[in-house]
């Protein structure tokens, strides 16, 4: 089973520039995963009208034990996606293979 769950952006500033997963949504997603007997393997967020890259801010707020998928969204449509994983001290990241539908 593969499933993506949408969580709200709880960041109170300009949301196009930053995201913070809503902790309640994140908790519910974790609980639903446990209920279904599946594992949360990562999180995704979008870069509106920008490329799919792992920014310094993304690295700073990432979780090293999860995949971090970044979607490039242009004119409201996903046009690219890439996955990254941070090292343990969140100073560097590496690309991960991402298997998803073609855009
Ligand atoms: Zn980002």
What does this 3D model show about the protein?
The chain has 103 residues and is α+β, with helices and mostly antiparallel strands. The chain has a domain at 42-103: 3-Layer(aba) Sandwich (Cytidine Deaminase, domain 2), CATH 3.40.140.10. Helices cover 18% and strands 28% of the residues. The protein has 2 helices and 4 strands, in the order H-E-H-E-E-E. Strands 1-2-3-4 form a 4-stranded mixed beta sheet, with no helix packed on it. A hairpin with a 2-residue loop joins strand 2 and strand 3. It is globular, with a radius of gyration of 14 Å. The two termini are 21 Å apart. The structure holds zinc ion (ZN).
Task: Compute the average pLDDT.
Answer: 92
Bound small molecules, by name, code or SMILES, are:
zinc ion
H-E order: HEHEEE
Name of the CATH first level of the domain at 42-103: Alpha Beta
Please report which band the strand proportion falls in: under 5%, 5-15%, 15-25%, 25-35%, 35-45% or over 45%. 25-35%
Provide the spatial order of strands within the biggest beta sheet: 1-2-3-4
Shape: globular
How many helical stretches?
2
Q: What's the CATH H-level homologous superfamily of the domain at 42-103?
A: Cytidine Deaminase, domain 2
Main sheet?
A: 4 strands, mixed
Poorly predicted regions are none
End-to-end distance = 21 Å
**How many β-strand stretches?**
4
What would you say the CATH architecture of the domain at 42-103 is?
3-Layer(aba) Sandwich
Share of helical residues: 10-25%
Rg calculated over all Cα atoms: 14 Å
User: Within the CATH hierarchy, at the fold level, what is the topology of the domain at 42-103?
Assistant: Cytidine Deaminase, domain 2
* Strand-pairing-aware structural class: alpha+beta
């Amino acid at each position: 089973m593969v499933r993506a769950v949408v969580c709200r952006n709880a960041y109170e500033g300009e949301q196009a520039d930053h995201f913070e997963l809503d902790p309640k949504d994140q908790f519910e997603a974790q609980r639903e995963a446990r209920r279904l007997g599946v594992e949360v393997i990562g999180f995704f967020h979008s870069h509106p009208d920008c490329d799919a890259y792992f920014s310094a801010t993304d690295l700073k707020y990432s979780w090293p034990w999860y995949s971090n998928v970044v979607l490039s969204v242009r004119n409201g449509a996903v046009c690219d996606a890439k996955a990254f994983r941070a090292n343990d001290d969140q100073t560097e990241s590496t690309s991960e293979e991402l298997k998803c539908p073609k855009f």
